[in-house]
Design a protein that fits this description.
It is built from 41 helices and 15 strands. With 910 residues, the chain is an alpha/beta fold. The termini are far apart.
């Protein structure tokens, strides 16, 4: 039989972890009392008494505010306070649900208990004055919490400002928990997100303080209640009621200065005595930083991700997963909310698959814990909250900013907006407002302010752009601006120092890619795409982006053929770039020479001497790579004639260096060495700001690369090593990968191999491989594999000779035959050392035939030396001795003293 409540009996409603005693106006979760206002508890009583049934708003208002007229918004404020209080248990479903158009319903069963009023007491534990929401544990915010505590101690209002999901509330509450340990009356948490009407700010604060909302002057009542309390006030989510919240905070601060106030907002309150603490996303590993599990966990973003994944599914970070998890955290910009929404997905996906989903869309983050605040249950909802607070002009500019791929400047924004007939003044004001509201991140780079959208915000704004039907116009405006900007790039390339030129244009590479991608899509404009591609060619050359340049130029050429009246200047530039790119391919295309000659024809037809020089240079490079040194000399004669007619003296040093190396390959070793030395002396120091896009390589680097190789052949090892080091150091300093890869492949690695510096050679081969992966320089892949196999052979590793043979076969089949006779001789000697006589015999035979066919007389002495070793291994002692003597004589006649010494050593063993 149920006891009826009497004078000494309390009714207790029990549900989940909660107990509610209406008579005592007491709500308890576990062992801790929950601080909720009296009106809210009255509402809870009626809802529980009618549990399972809808209770109308009018019934609730009459029960909680008898004989008092109140606005319906008072009901919403108190229902929100109840819901917040009931989030502290373990129950995953809402206790109070909204019945659309009718009212509210208590959605879970509550059992009725009774207890003696004289013996029941509130459970002990917890700070009786603390009313703070239960939030997840913090990771990586110790410095922020310490800064907030220090700012509160210094007095004034402290506002935590930051973008959506960065963790403002969590940090504020964490700081409050530490502060309340020394505050007699604890803290009061006021969630302003529950209201939409600025007039309800005071009512919400009063409700959180447990005051009646029927006071004649709520603000006076709040100040009176706080005057006798040593308490901390937290005003959470002020951005949508900013002006009123700021006024109330300022008034409380002036009236009761001993009360600490922490506000959270997307933008500052802008009041006197305000301290703004800008909360940044959590640090992530840098994109180019290799990490294992231990290194990754040192970054707070990764630590948070792993902590939440472990809580959800027992996940443990492995060395294998560490790079993917680091990429996930970077993709999410280190934003805690996004990380917390992503981490539990490891229950369904592995880290690499989750990263792929995030690269495609953030939609996977649109479902979060149901016991989180509604605006934090999905990334979409969080961004919706911020977006709805914007003016139409601000929202329009935010949508437009989604066309930028990375960072951008104020001038970029004004220029793109002007394409859409938006006034610069309006755009500038909206941009500053968006930055103030934490929707646009800003930072200083080189003393200049730059902006960017976080990836999640950019994705959201892009979807809004499409939904508003503005996507095509915005992308077109962006592309037209970039086309106008880059139309001057080639002209400025000839005038500006490389460093300044790259500072202006290099940082726009991502935007350029995005604009070109749009232009060639179904919704785009191929003519703009062609112009953008041509404008981008100098940048790709300066950045050594050979793979990207090749693919995009090919696309633009196909589009140009489809246009009835494509500008012939554009066709010429595309043809020249295409022909040159073919020379960088792993396999020389059969059509490469025809492409070179077509680019020469177009340059002549357009009367463009500069592109005529570039086209002839490209043909000469192709001929050199193909081992056609006789034809190279003829092409260089044409290049010099074009330069002389155009009075272009800048091409002369590059042409001279190329001519000297061609002479060297044809056997004029001494003359080439002397000429390269003189050329190096004339250009003793690197140009501080060289431009590479004309002939694709740093002139200082290629001159010393050539001199280093020739010096070693001449027997001057010290000069060779010193000069090769200078070439490599300069290439690294200028960060020009084409120059660096040439230095490595053509001088640094072979010299290290021939001088027995195998550890250094191995490091250099690893670096060459890295540069090939970075920029798509596939032409060096077979040679890189050959050098690696040669090092393995020198270390005595099994299978190395077979690997050398495979690499040489790839070099031969590629058609890139420069120096291939020496590689064949190295294979032959390695085969001899492993007693593979037949391979050695065929390899040296092929080397000698190939050298004669290519007119590569520079290595004739070395080929004869290896031939002599093969003959000796076959038991042909007399023939071997004669061949070795011929090798010595040939080396002495050509000046190849390094080869002469090697032949002499072998002859001494006969």
């Amino acid at each position: 039989m149920e006891a009826k409540p009497g004078a000494d009996v309390d009714v207790v409603y029990a549900f989940g972890n909660y107990r509610f005693l209406p008579r005592r106006q007491l709500l308890v979760c576990g062992e801790a009392p929950i601080r909720v206002g009296a009106r809210a508890l009255n509402l809870l009583q009626l809802l529980i008494e009618r549990q399972g049934e809808p209770v109308s708003k009018s019934d609730l208002i009459r029960f909680a505010w008898p004989d008092i007229f109140v606005h319906e918004s008072n009901l919403k404020v108190n229902i929100a306070a109840l819901r917040r209080a009931l989030q502290q248990g373990q129950h995953q479903l809402p206790y109070i649900v909204t019945v659309s158009g009718r009212g509210y319903r208590f959605a879970v069963p509550a059992r009725v208990e009774t207890t003696s009023g004289s013996t029941w007491a509130a459970p002990s534990g917890g700070h009786s004055g603390v009313s703070l929401p239960a939030l997840p544990s913090l990771v990586g915010r110790d410095k922020d919490i310490a800064a907030l505590i220090a700012a509160v101690d210094d007095g004034g209002v402290v506002t935590v400002v930051g973008p959506a999901g960065v963790g403002k509330t969590t940090v504020a509450v964490a700081a409050a928990r530490q502060l309340t340990e020394r505050l007699p009356h604890g803290a009061c948490f006021v969630d302003l997100a529950a209201i939409n009407d600025p007039q309800m700010v005071c009512a919400t604060i009063a409700s959180a303080l447990g005051l009646g909302t029927g006071l004649a002057d709520l603000l006076v009542g709040i100040v009176t209640a706080l005057r006798s309390a040593d308490r901390l006030l937290i005003l959470d989510n002020c951005e949508h009621v900013l002006s009123t919240a700021a006024s109330v905070a300022a008034h409380i601060r002036e009236s009761v200065p001993h009360v600490g106030i922490i506000a959270t907002s997307r933008e500052p309150l802008r009041i006197r005595s305000e301290t703004v603490h800008r909360l940044q996303p959590l640090p992530c590993p840098a994109p180019d930083m290799p990490v294992d599990s231990t290194q990754a966990m040192a970054f707070p973003a990764v630590a948070l991700f792993v902590t939440r994944a472990q809580e959800a599914s027992g996940y443990r970070l492995s060395d294998h997963d560490a790079p993917a998890v680091a990429d996930i955290c970077r993709r999410l910009d280190g934003v805690p909310l996004a990380i917390e929404l992503a981490a539990p997905r490891l229950q369904t996906y592995d880290a690499a698959t989750l990263l792929q989903h995030l690269d495609r869309s953030f939609g996977i983050l649109n479902h979060g814990p149901r016991n989180a605040p509604l605006r934090h249950q999905a990334l979409q909802t969080t961004l919706d909250w911020s977006y709805r607070l914007l003016s139409d002009a601000e929202a329009g500019l935010l949508r437009l900013l989604s066309v930028f791929a990375g960072t951008f400047t104020r001038d970029d924004v004004l220029a793109v907006a002007s394409e859409l007939r938006t006034s610069p003044g309006d755009s500038a004001a909206c941009l500053e407002n968006l930055a103030s509201k934490s929707l646009v991140a800003q930072h200083q780079v080189g003393g200049r302010q730059r902006y960017r959208l976080l990836d999640a915000t950019r994705g959201y704004a892009r979807e809004r752009l499409r939904a508003e039907g503005e996507h095509r116009r915005a992308c077109e405006a962006h592309a037209l601006y970039l086309n106008r900007l880059f139309s001057n790039a080639e002209a400025e390339w000839a005038k500006l120092p490389r460093e300044d030129w790259l500072a202006s244009y290099g940082q726009r590479a991502h935007d350029l890619r995005k604009a070109i991608d749009w232009a060639f899509c179904a919704d785009g404009d191929p003519e703009i795409g062609i112009r953008l591609t041509v404008a981008a060619i100098p940048l790709w050359d300066e950045l050594s982006s050979v793979g990207e340049s090749s693919q995009r130029v090919r696309t633009a050429l196909q589009a140009a053929k489809a246009l009835p009246d494509c500008d012939p200047i554009l066709q010429m530039k595309l043809a020249t770039a295409h022909a040159r790119n073919l020379a960088f391919a792993e396999r020389i295309d059969p059509d490469a020479e025809a492409a070179c000659r077509e680019s020469i024809r177009l340059a002549q037809a357009n009367g463009d001497a500069d592109y005529h020089l570039r086209s002839v240079w490209g043909l000469a490079v192709l001929q050199s790579f193909a081992g056609r040194h006789r034809e190279v000399a003829a092409s260089l004669d044409e290049l010099d004639a074009v330069a002389q007619r155009a009075l272009d003296h800048n091409a002369q040093p590059a042409s001279a260096r190329f001519r000297y190396m061609t002479q060297f390959y044809r056997g004029e070793i001494v003359q080439a060495h002397d000429a390269l030395r003189q050329l190096a002396r004339r250009h003793r120091t690197p140009d501080p700001s060289p431009n590479f896009s004309r002939f694709h390589i740093n002139p200082y680097v290629i001159t010393r690369t050539s001199l280093a190789f020739v010096s070693w052949i001449r027997g001057d090892t010290a000069e060779a090593v010193r000069t090769a080091t200078l070439a490599l150091d300069c290439a690294k300093a200028t960060n020009h990968v084409v120059s660096e890869s040439n230095a490595l492949a053509l001088a640094v690695i072979p010299i290290a191999l021939w001088t027995g510096q195998f550890d250094a050679a191995e490091r250099h081969v690893a670096r060459l491989t890295e540069t090939l992966n970075q920029k798509g320089l596939t032409s060096w892949w077979p040679l890189s594999d050959f050098f690696h196999a040669a090092i393995r052979h020198r270390r005595g590793e099994p299978g190395a000779v077979e690997a050398m043979q495979l690499a040489v076969d790839r070099i031969l089949s590629s058609g890139s035959l420069l120096r291939v006779p020496i590689y064949l001789s190295m294979l032959a000697e390695a085969a001899l050392e492993r007693d593979q006589l037949e391979l050695a015999r065929t390899s040296i035979g092929t080397a000698i035939a190939q050298a004669e066919r290519q007119d590569e007389a520079w290595c004739q002495a070395e080929l004869l030396r290896v031939l002599g070793l093969v003959e000796r291994s076959l038991g042909k002692w007399s023939s071997a001795e004669n061949t070795l003597r011929r090798a010595m004589t040939t080396a002495g006649q050509t000046g190849a003293l390094a080869f002469q010494l090697r032949a002499a050593c072998n002859l001494a063993d006969c």
